[in-house]
Specification:
Elements (H helix, E strand, L loop, with lengths): L7 E6 L2 E6 L3 E4 L10 E4 L3 E6 L5 E2 L10 E6 L2 E5 L5 E3 L2 E3 L3 E2 L5 E4 L3 E6 L1 H9 L13 H5 L14 H35 L9 E5 L2 E5 L22
Parallel strand pairs: 5-6
Antiparallel strand pairs: 1-2, 3-4, 3-13, 5-7, 7-8, 8-11, 9-10, 9-12, 12-13, 14-15
């Protein structure tokens, strides 16, 4: 297997050591708990084959075929071709050519794990983040208006505040008018009802020692009412 050299940056920060490459590459996460090495596998322009046979990148593990799959780098666009063997991207099995994106996790066979890094793509993604590097990416001007010109900020219209206040005043006048109309309508209905006679309650039968008679129910204080008695005898009146 030919060894392809790729530029690496070693950055020491306190007690940690950071390894950074400029080109797309795979980071081998090992094929088991006994693996301790960290291996960077570059993905140059063109086609890179993977498997345990005569391939560009040799991988071992259960379920890995002799020519397991290959990765194609076409002007920075990285695509995985499974070749009918067991491959997964971010835990999802794939059987068709799949475009790889920065940071995705790959598994070939049952236990050969890799992380895909694309430094240029990662740099573009970071540039889309707002200040501070937090939150969702800000859409580029091209996505917003289809051109490379930024969208001009919205300008405040003169007299906008005056228009709003005028509309609010008109709405308040309408509400006051409706309130006055309701009040007058209520007063008119009350006046009409005051001239109507009070309906009499139906009489109900009571038994008294002298015989059956009908007595109207009690009336409210301050009003007069006539007690009407009706005696019913066998011979009549």
């Amino acid at each position: 297997v030919d060894t392809i050299l790729t530029p690496l940056d070693l950055i020491e920060t306190g007690k940690t050591l950071k390894v950074q490459a400029e080109r797309p590459h795979l980071v081998s996460l090992g094929s088991g708990r006994l693996s301790t090495a960290i291996t960077l596998l570059p993905l140059p322009e063109g086609k890179t084959t993977l498997g345990h046979g005569n391939t560009d990148i040799n991988i071992q593990g259960p379920g890995v075929a002799e020519l397991h799959c290959y990765v194609e780098n076409l002007v920075g666009a990285i695509t995985l071709f499974p070749c009918g063997n067991l491959c997964s991207v971010d835990g999802v099995a794939v059987s068709k050519p799949t475009r790889l994106s920065q940071g995705c996790m790959l598994c070939f066979g049952q236990s050969a794990f890799f992380r895909f890094n694309h430094p240029e793509e990662a740099l573009r993604m970071k540039s889309m983040l707002p200040a501070g590097g937090r939150g969702l990416p800000v859409p580029s001007p091209i996505l917003l208006n289809g051109t490379d010109q930024p969208v001009p900020p919205e300008r405040a219209h003169p007299g906008h505040g005056t228009l709003v206040r005028s509309i609010e005043k008109d709405l308040q006048d309408i509400m006051d008018s409706l309130s006055m109309s309701d009040s007058q309508a209520s007063s008119s209905e009350c006046g009409k009802l005051s001239h109507l006679p009070i309906p009499q309650s139906p009489l109900y039968p009571m038994l008294n020692g002298a015989g059956p008679h009908l007595v109207s129910p009690p009336v409210s204080p301050g009003t007069t009412s006539t007690l009407r008695l009706s005696f019913h005898c066998c011979g009549g009146w």
